Amino acid sequence: MKKSILTLQQRREFLKTSALLAGGTMLSTIPLVGAYASGSDTIKIALIGCGDRGTGAAFQALSTKYNIKLVAMADAFQDRIDKSYEALSSKFSTKMDVPKERQFVGFDAYKQAIPLADVVLLVTPPGFRPIHFEEAVKQNKQIFMEKPVAVDAPGIRKVLAAAEEAKKKKLNVVVGLQRRYQTNYREAMKRINDGAIGDIMSGQVYWNSGGVWVNPRKTGQTEMEYQMRNWYYFNWLCGDHIVEQHVHNIDISNWIKNAHPVSVQGTGSRAWRTGKDYGEIYDNHSIELTYADGAVIHSQCRHFEGISNRVDESFMGTKGKIYLSGSNQAVMKDYSGKELYNHNTKGNANPYQTEHDELFEAISKGEYKFNNVEYAATSTFTSIIGRYATYSGETIKWDEALAADNSLFPEKLAWDAMPKLLPDANGLYPYAMPGKTKVI
Asked: Each residue of 191-205: pLDDT tens digit?
């Protein structure tokens, strides 16, 4: 196993072109392996993971202008399939062809659904992403998969190995880091790559919000089912919110730097979410990303209720600065205050929809156009290293972390099997203590 995903020069060259690839620059035009496997002009899709985000991804795929049918659904829970099927059928009755015999339930459901489709949507909790992506590539499928792409170093290595196979097979892979498909970010990156604000030397990226849902424990649930129903609060499934959510902003840091950090240090804690309903994850992380050229980007994410929220990015270059946000803002100025660019926020396309529009356009034309996995894995692993740093209190080096053998995944997937993390007699889960916890 290589110690680094890419050399520094390779990273710069790859990430320099990633904006073009995300923007739709064609790599090649060839007959696609797996597409239109049935011989008809209908693109068959399978939905793997039928929660709210999975239902949203299927909604966007079916909303494209192409001849698409949903032919298979897979989830660990039948009730999730039922809810998703009802929601999608109410809007896309003519594009739904998923009888009960093609609704697959359980940990191995993905293996049954993937062979039936030309394109798979991988939208389960991210802990399963590496094995699902590996199987989809093995089955020669075109792929949309949500971020993040893994939750630990072994998972990242599995994703990268499968990505190499996808590249050889010329399988399109789009990853749901939707800012890469958002107009204000694309326009800003064009100007930054042209040198409008010089070399990026510092910045701040934020995802500060009030937190997410909780599903209380029910009588009769096994520990495995409880953790699966509350996947956000367990690292083998979620990776902590610095990975699951804040990866969006960290990805912008890597994109704008055309590199990944060489080391990460920071701090975090459980300051507000301290009860047994919140598993093991922290509610705040504050880290510094140090890049090879000496630039330092500050990253902050937190889940506190009742305080101000912030989800955006700012960067300072040698000639000017830029502010960006998911609400379509992009404001660029030089240090005299002169405005260099101010993005028009009106009428911008929905980036979640754009991801699917561009993917299915490429598939319909028989083009190999998208390989988002390299930058998605890089940004996911940057977020994972951030968790390693806050949990341990140590400065984490990229190369050392990538080689770590610290899988969080259970030894066995079954409803009566035990995850690696278990509660104590009071129902409280152990969590990381900086200075005591070793992560690699």
From this structure: 999 999 999 999 999
